[in-house]
Design goal:
With 431 residues, this protein is of the alpha+beta class. Helix content is 30%, strand content 18%. The protein has helices at residues 44-51, 106-121, 138-149, 229-239, 251-261, 268-272, 276-288, 310-321, 326-341, 353-364, 402-415; strands spanning 12-14, 21-26, 36-41, 61-62, 68-73, 77-82, 92-97, 129-134, 182-187, 203-210, 293-296, 367-376, 382-391. A six-stranded mixed β-sheet has the order 4-8-9-7-6-5, sandwiched between helices. The protein has a four-stranded antiparallel β-sheet with strand order 11-10-12-13, covered by helices on one side. Strands 1-2-3 form a three-stranded antiparallel β-sheet, with no helix packed on it. A hairpin with a 6-residue loop joins strand 1 and strand 2. It is globular. Residues 1-57, 155-159, 163-171, 242-263 and 304-308 have low confidence and may be disordered.
Length: 431
Amino acid sequence: MAPPSTWLDNTTTASTGYYGQINYNIVNYQQDNHATPVTVKVSRDAAIQASAYLHEIVPMTVNNASEWEYLGEGASNIVYRYTGSLPTLAPYILRIRKALPGAPSTLDLYKSLQSTFIPVLGSDLVCPTFLARFAPGVVASLNSHLARLSSWDTPLELRRRQVNENGNSVIGTGKLDEEEVYGMLVLDMSCGASSVWREGGWTDVAMVEFKPRWLSQSADAPTGWKVCRSCAVRKMHHHRRTPSADSGIGLMDEDEEMDRENNDHYCPLDLASENPVFVRRAVKALLYGGAAEVHCSSGDEDIDLAGATGDVLTERFTAWLSRGSPGAEAISRLRRAQENWGTRSVFDESPGAGKETGKAMAVRDCTVFVRVWARWARGGEVETNFEMRVGDLDMKNGSGGGAAYWRNVERRLRGGGWYERLEEGERECSR
C-alpha cells in the first residue's frame, strides 16, 4: 500500500479542523533527560490562541551549545542540527534569528505562524515547529563558534561558512542576535532525517527545495499583462544591471536580491496551473533549470536511483502536481493565500495594507520542501511517492528596506514595460 500523500510527524498530531487536540512530545531537558508527553485539549474556537502560547505549557530549554552543529544559513536565520543523545530532538533542526535591525522577534514570528499561516495553509502542510528557549550564554557560545567557522585561522575542511579571498563571508554573513530569547525547532526535511515509511521498504532518495514565488499575478501588474511578476523580474534582471535615477535604494543591493528571485525558465504560474503541460515545464525548471536545490540521498544504494530520477521522476512529479493530485492541492493552498492577502498594491498606504502585503510576501518567499520516496515494486520497477512541507513562513513587516525594495521593483517593472514585453519566440505566461 502506498504511503499517505501528506504526513504529520509522529510527535505532533492534530484532529480534524485546525486543532482539536494537540499532542506535543517535547523534551524539557532543563528538568530531566527524558521525553515528556504532554496533551493539550482545547476547543476549536480557542485552539489557535492556545497553540500560539504552547511555549508556556511545554517549554524546552537549549542548555548546551556544543550539542548543535552549524548546518547552513540564509539572509535572516542560521540553522543548526542536533548532535546530542536525545532521540526526540533528532528529527528537528534549530533555527535561530540573526541580529538584523527592525526584525521581528522569534516569539512574534512563532505567534504569527500559529495564528495566521497554519489556520490558512493547514497543519498538515506547514513544517511542525516548536519554540525553544535559550539558557544564558548559549547564543554567545554559538556566535563564537560562527567566528571560528569563517576564520582563515581555521583549517579549510572545518571552515563551514563560505568566504572569499579577502576573508569576507559570501554566504555566511552576520551573527546571531544575543538578545534573542527563543529559537525554533523545525522538522528536518533533509534526506535520511525521517524514519517514516521505512518499515514498508521506502527510502527517501531525494529532496527538492524551492521558493514558490508569485503563484498569482501581482496586484500592480497592468491590465494587459503578458508576463507574470516573477518572469518580469527575471527578464528585467537579465536586461540591465546599471543604476537608475528612480532607485529608492541601492541598485546593486536590489540586483543581489533579485538573484534569489531569478530562476531561468521557472514560471510560478505554470506550477500553479494544475495543467500537466504547464506543470511539466515548471517541474523541469525545478529539477534541471536551477530553480530548486535538489539533494540526493547517499544512503540506500539498493534502490536504483535511475528508476526514480530523470524522465521517470519528471513525469511522476508532474502527475503529483497536476489537477486532482495531492501536490496540486497543496500548491493551490499557497496560491489562494497569496491571492487573499495580495490584493493590495505595494504603494497602498491605507490602514492594514502593509500588514496584508507582508502576509502575502511571506507566502511568496517561504520554502517548499518535497521529499521523494522510492521502493522496489513488483516486476523490478521503482515505486515513488512525494511528501510536501512548507517552512520559513516569516511575517514580513517591510522593515530594513523591504517595503522600499518592493515599491522600487514595481516602479522599474511598470516603467520598463516588463509586464507586457515579449521577445521574439517567447510565450505569454499561463493564466
